[in-house]
Amino acid sequence: MMLTYPKFKAATVHAAPVFLNRDATTDKVCSLIGEAARNGADLIVLPEAFIPAFPVWAAVWAPIYNHAMFRKMAANSVLANGAQMQRIAQEARKHGIFVSIGISEINPVSVGGLWNSNMLISDEGEVLNHHRKLVPTYFEKLVWAPGDGAGLKVCDTRLGKIGALICGENTNPLARYSLMAQGEQVHISSWPPIWPTEKPNPWASNYDIAAAVRIRAGAHSFEAKAFGIVSSGFMDQAMRDYLVDMDDTVAEILDNTPRSVSMFIAPNGKQIGQSLQDEEGILYGDIDIADCVEPKQFHDVVGYYNRFDIFSLTVNRTRHVPISFSPLALEDHSDADLAGQAPLDELAL
Fold first, then answer.
1. Are 253 and 285 within one domain?
2. 329 and 241 in one domain?
């Protein structure tokens, strides 16, 4: 039987959330889904931690000043199977479009436990993959807990084989290889709007996240021979003013830190079409999975261009849970099942 290669239109979002407002941001997500679908997209990709926002405050203030921001972040984070995600899934099914979205996920058994997660939802409204960022990067550790390997999956869909990593995970060769080795053809990477590392001054070079994104996205597409879909957040005036109103000394940092970028990458590592950096919008790209074939002749790192007798990789995809009960314990304490919560395996999707 001859292989067939899907062709489809994808949409990548470069936008700001309604800052730290999960319900209003969910409204915006649903609006963006509808817009992308009306423009013929079969897949829409939204930025890292889009609901409710990326915690840039953890970079600009010491931890002792961030308790109120953390409480607000936790209050506006979402359950992986909560009302906001159910609404987005319904919107995906309504429009017949796949949706990839970054969320700040709240732990169902901890009011202050958060993960940086990415959800891939099918065009029928089913959750295909639920990935928690393996290692929060630098100041992100003050907000999010480490994830696990359960979401290191490539999903075989009518659009092709889709995988996703969050922000700095795209620097991790083993995480990237684990997706390549599952036949990844479309790689989604999601990013924050800015990533401050230095106060602006003539002697220090602040982290140029746009340059870093281009390097990593291009490298992965070139190595995997896969399409890259890059979606970064955007810091709008409302987000900037919210933070500056709390402390006007951060204005210089926020105004002079390089902005991130959204774009498409071909399997040869080259950018497709235009990019978005300094304004909100949706980019569209045409993807033909057949374009992944020819580059595999040159170096196929999960095929002939490897030495499996020398190198090996084992990935633990066990979902982490805080407690497990023996059958006897469950029987003895059936009335105390986490205060009426659903079983953890259901909550973790």
1. yes
2. no
Q: pLDDT 10s digit of each residue in the chain, 349 long? A: 678 899 999 999 999 999 999 999 999 999 999 999 999 999 999 999 999 999 999 999 999 999 999 999 999 999 999 999 999 999 999 999 999 999 999 999 999 999 999 999 999 999 999 999 999 999 999 999 999 999 999 999 999 999 999 999 999 999 999 999 999 999 999 999 999 998 887 776 778 999 999 999 999 999 999 999 999 999 999 999 999 999 999 999 999 999 999 999 999 999 999 999 999 999 999 999 999 999 999 999 999 999 999 999 999 999 999 998 988 755 555 444 444 444 434 444 4
Q: Are 36 and 282 in contact (CB under 8 A)?
A: yes
- Let me know: does 103 contact 50? Beta carbons within 8 Å: yes
- Clarify whether residues 348 and 308 are in a common domain: no
User: How many domains does the structure of the chain reveal?
Assistant: 2
Q: Is residue 223 part of a domain?
A: yes
The model's pTM is: 0.92
347 and 238 in a common domain? no
**Inside any domain, residue 1:** no
Nearest 5°: phi and psi at 62? -65, 155
In a domain, 274, yes or no: yes
**Are residues 345 and 256 part of one domain?**
no
Q: What are phi and psi of 186, to 5 degrees?
A: -130, 120
| Residue 192 exposed, middle or buried by CB count within 10 Å (0-12, 13-18, 19+) | buried
CB atoms closer than 10 angstroms to residue 126: 11
Closest CA to 62 of 290, 265, 330, 249: 249
Q: Which domain holds residue 324?
A: 319-349
Position 2 in a domain:
no
